[in-house]
Structures are given as structure tokens and as C-alpha cells.
Specification:
Layout lengths: L1 E6 L8 H13 L3 E6 L10 H7 L3 E3 L16 H18 L3 E4 L2 H13 L6 E4 L10 H10 L2 E4 L2 H11 L6 E3 L19 H4 L7 E5 L8 H14 L4 E5 L5 H12 L5 E5 L5 H7 L2 E4 L9 H8 L4 E3 L5 H4 L6 E3 L4 H12 L2 H18 L2 H18 L4
Parallel strand pairs: 1-2, 1-4, 2-3, 4-5, 5-6, 6-7, 8-9, 8-11, 9-10, 11-12, 12-13
Helix pairs in contact: 1-15, 3-4, 8-9, 8-13, 11-14
Length: 387
Amino acid sequence: MKILHLFSDWKWTGPAEPVVNLCLALQERGHEVALAYRRPPIETAESMEKGVREKALKGVDSFHLAPISKPLQIYRLREVISDVRGIARYIDDERFDIVNFHNSHDHIVGGMAVRASKRRPPAIRMDHKRDSLKADPVSRWFFRRHTDGLITFSERSRERLVRAFGFSPEQVVKVATAVDLMRFDPHKAYKDMRPVFGIPPASPVVGIVARFQQYRRTDILLEAIARLIKAVPEVRLLLVGHSSQMQQSVIEPMERLGIASHVILAGYRVDDYIDILACMDIFCLLTPGSDGTARALREAMAMGKPAVVTPRGMLPELVQDGETGIVAQEDPEALCHALLSLVRDEGLRKAMGKAAHAMAHREFRRERQAEEVEAFYQKILKAVPPS
């Protein structure tokens, strides 16, 4: 198959890396894949452009793919029209069999381009949203007109999309987001990060990776840790990530609770990110981020870490309560109780971590994701072949 992916963002955040990895896996299965992305408007160390280049994918940066996010950007309407025409010509010239969208803007532009093309290949939308795709009347009309199939990441989202958009169950598929299992391997030797952060060798470490915006409810986790410290004074909380809302979401509640000496703010990490995951004893996540696939949780599971999560989003689908971790209610007392049971029982931590690692290797393989996406493409192609 010849497959065109459209991604109207230049940042190396959210679904960017999973999209690049999926394209690479499809390419490795013998398909011709092109990934059209937005060119970075500024000099930056991390971008889609860099990711595409490093993975040796066929990248296309000749389209604008810039959303109109503010009324003053109405001048971009000219760019949108140019993209619709240009992408339609590209589809016909390259004779693509499938076009796959990932964001709202590339879906709008690409969907119109598919209909404007002579070839009219099937149009697929991949859902990366935390709360799934919105289904207001305009969205429903657009999806029904410009979408032949939907790929989402959880069973809960799949059922909602079938119900909300009126698609048949055969048009919507759940495909687990993959993790680079060669990279996230608990059996490798990693740098001991405890001395770097001043964590005593025997201290249990609870870790979380997130953008610490207020909706992530880190304040609840901090309250749980404050209670946990009373029972296990040597415990430490390791926060990996940053946000413009750190002051309100982390620093103020941490200082109010008087637990600053037990909390490590590691900031955004790249080079030693896996070393930091390796030093955690328990991974915790209360709310998925804007990329609802909970990628950091998947990576922690691949590293053999037991997890404590809440019932939000797809978290209870990823964490099998009592097997790979604990699903606790979103309140400080319940979270503290769940964390305490793991902190005090090293055998339970190891057993759940081993089960989490096994699940990751069963469910999060890149090859499996590519196989399932490929099978879905072929099913949709049979139903809606290109002209």
C-alpha cells in the first residue's frame, strides 16, 4: 500500500513520536509511507522534522498545515485553500491508497483534499485525544462526510465513537499505542539517579511523569504523599516534567503541606529520562494528558514498574487492578492506601512490575500496532476502494 499520513504540528510532543514510530513500522512491513508535517517556525532542538529525519522516513514539508487558531490569523485561509489543492494533486500524482489524519486541522484540510482529488482514497482519522474526539453537530457532519474509518486507543473510546458519530462498529477499531520495547528495557544497566537527586538508597520512590497543569490534579497526589510520609517517613516523590502552572499545581500545595523536603522536582528530562524511570519503585498517574494514550504510563510498565492510577480515561484499561498495579479512587486517602500497600510490600511490587512488563510486551509491541493498523486499512480499502 501507498499511505499518506498528515500531521499538522511541528512540535515533538503528545502524539508526535508515536505517529513517527507507526509510520516507521508500516514502512518496515513493506508499505510506501509519506509523512507530511508542519515545518518548524523557529529553531528548535526537538521537532517533527528532526524525528522524521532521524527515523529515515519520507517526510513532506511543502504544505503549510498551520491551523487558524485566532481571528487575526484569517490570512491563513489562503494557505488552507493552497493546501487543499496541493494535497489533492499530491494524492493523485503519488497514487496513494490511504490517507491518515492525526489532528483536527490536517483532518479538515486533508478531508477536503481527498474529496477534491480524482483518486479519492479512503480517509482514516486516528484519535489521540484524552477525552476522545468531540461529537457536536458540525463535527458529526464533517466526520460522516470526510471519514471512512476511525482508529482509537481504548475500548471505551471505540464504543463512544461508534455511538456518538453513528459509524458502524466495522468502521471504528481500537489499536493499542506502541512503545519502543528495545529502548524501555528493565534488564539494561542504568545510571543510578538517587545520588543525583539526593535520595537515600533505601527510600521508596514514587514517580510521576506529566505536564503539571492544574487539571492533572497533582495537588491530590501531594496530599496522599503527605499522609504516606506519616507512615513511611523515608518515602520520596519524584516529579518529572514541567508546566507554566507549576507554581499553582505543585509548588504552592507542596509548601502548604510542608513536604518540600520529600519532593524532587526533576524538570523536563531527555538524555537521562529512562535512567529516572529506572530509579522509581512505583509509578503514579491520576489523569491522562492531552495525548490520552498515557504514553508515560506505558513506558513505565515496559520498565517493569507497578502503577497506581485513578479510574480516569483509559487508565483502568491499561492497569489491571490487583495484577499490574492498583486502580484507586481519586482522593488522597484512597491513593495513600494504595501506595502504602506497595511501599510496604517489596514482593507485591516485584510481582506487579513483572506482570506490567509482560503486559507491555504482549500489548504494546510496535509490530503488533502496525499489523492491526494494516489490517484495518485493508478492510476499509475493500469497502471503499480508491477511484
